[in-house]
Amino acid sequence: KIGYFSGSITHNDDFNLILPVLKTILKEYKNVELHICGQLQIDDLKDQIVIHPFMDYRKLPELISQMDINLAPLNSTLFNEAKSENKWVEASLVKTCTIASNTGAFKECIQHGKTGFLCDEQKDWLTCLRNCIESKELRNQIAQNAYDYCIKKCTTMYTAHSFVEKIKPYIHKNICFA
Prior knowledge:
8 helices
């Protein structure tokens, strides 16, 4: 199960970046399903595509956790360079492997081949998808590595203390008498 969770119609161009690759993958691997959540339209290969309606963000982690591979394509634009790594973090925290564009925060957070996969061109997407489809062990190891990283570096349980230490010098006691 490969998942693409766009959310809004503004991601059509990003999805189109990898659409030819996904069509190739779905033709090569008849056991693969592409799950799409959001407002995208694909006319062919419908027997391998599962469309999920736009959903409450609180239900999304459960759906992502059911995927083997999470896709996060982004065109290389100034706007996309400023986007966060949330799609990768969300998938990592439910132990789902991510293949993402080598841009913006993805490039800064994902360690290619260790905590996810980064792609520059369609051939990279094709290679990474094939490798992940053909090796459950690879997917699971990448997902576990990403989970371990995100738990320690992307959750407040582990990061709040260092944040508090950085802002302590700027906090002044306020005393109020009533």
